Amino acid sequence: MSVNISAIIPVREGSxxxxxxxxxxxxxSNLLIHKIRQLKKVEHISEIIVSSDSDVMLEMAENEGVRIxxxxxxxxxxxxxxxxxxIEHLAYDVGNGEHILYAPCVCPLCDEQDFxxxxxxxxxxxxxxxxxxxxxxxxxxxxxxxxxxxxVNYRTGIYHTPSQxxxxxxxxxxxxxxxx
Length: 180
Prior knowledge:
A hairpin with a 2-residue loop joins strand 2 and strand 3 (29-30). 26% of the residues lie in helices and 25% in strands. The radius of gyration is 19 Å and the shape is globular. It has helices at residues 31-40, 55-63, 83-93, 112-128; strands at residues 5-10, 25-26, 29-30, 45-52, 67-70, 99-102, 134-141, 169-179. The chain has a 6-stranded mixed beta sheet with strand order 5-4-1-6-8-7, with helices on both faces. A two-stranded antiparallel ribbon has the order 2-3. The model has no long low-confidence stretch (mean pLDDT 91).
């Protein structure tokens, strides 16, 4: 099954916790260039688009030979629009593909093999079996949890829960979101 996937890398000028994190040195380049080069290795991606309010980042993207989208400030300030509104804007107004891979560059260890597996799962489970509506990057989480006063997901004492019997939870790692 062939799918037309637009990969969108969202970057913005106004990083709050670590200024200019997307373009700080990382390996032999920076996070933005690293992510572009990873996505270029993924067979099923028909186009890569960098969406940013930063002219510097857009110029870097152009130099890497990918499409650019100058994002309006209201979609980059984390105040004017919600995350859902940003995603909707990027999906409907930016990508040419009928499927969007939202790929933040701040998860550099999410690599081309992860994207390829995600696309395979998307084709099988979303488009084929129609079991889900999207694929997101997660890591499994099997840890003993407590709230303020007691264990949440296990028992202590004589009926202690072995770690292999803990419930399966997953943590979203913001490596990608893939949806129609």
